């Protein structure tokens, strides 16, 4: 899976945003704001990756149980799917 190339990321201070461009702007109008954890996941998705690979990177970066991290990653991926920002 990978971030749809019709979405760009931008950081403004401490705020991370995902912005649709091109055809994506027709199906999703707006800006998706994310916290630091979601932004980390989106950064992982800039290259082709898997759920397990993202979870492994998150386990190195954050001090939390793997089950909790996996649930959080899945929630972010579901949100990205809902706005068509994820290519699978």
Protein described:
There is one protein chain. The protein is an alpha+beta fold and 88 residues long. The mean pLDDT is 91. It has a single domain, classed as Outer Surface Protein A, domain 3. The protein is globular and about 40 Å long. The strands form two sheets. A three-stranded antiparallel β-sheet has the order 2-3-4. The protein has a two-stranded antiparallel sheet with strand order 1-5. The protein is 47% helix and 22% strand.
For the structure shown, list the relevant keywords.
88 residues, three-stranded antiparallel sheet, 5 strands, alpha+beta, two-stranded antiparallel ribbon, Outer Surface Protein A, domain 3, 4 helices
TL;DR?
The chain is α+β, with helices and mostly antiparallel strands and 88 residues long. Helix content is 47%, strand content 22%. Strands 2-3-4 form a three-stranded antiparallel beta sheet.
The fraction of residues in strands falls at 15-25%
Give the rounded overall mean pLDDT: 91
The computed structural class is alpha+beta
Determine the number of helices (DSSP H or I, runs of at least 4 residues): 4
Physical arrangement of strands within the biggest beta sheet: 2-3-4
Helix content: 40-55%
Number of strand elements: 5
Which CATH class is shown?
Answer: Alpha Beta
Can you write the helix and strand succession as a string? EEEHEHHHE
Extract low-pLDDT stretches. Answer: none
Q: If classified by CATH, what would the architecture be?
A: Alpha-Beta Complex
Shape: globular
Q: What about the largest sheet?
A: 3 strands, antiparallel
CATH topology: Outer Surface Protein A, domain 3
The total domain count is 1
Distance between the termini: 4 Å
Q: From the alpha carbons, calculate the radius of gyration and give it in angstroms.
A: 13 Å
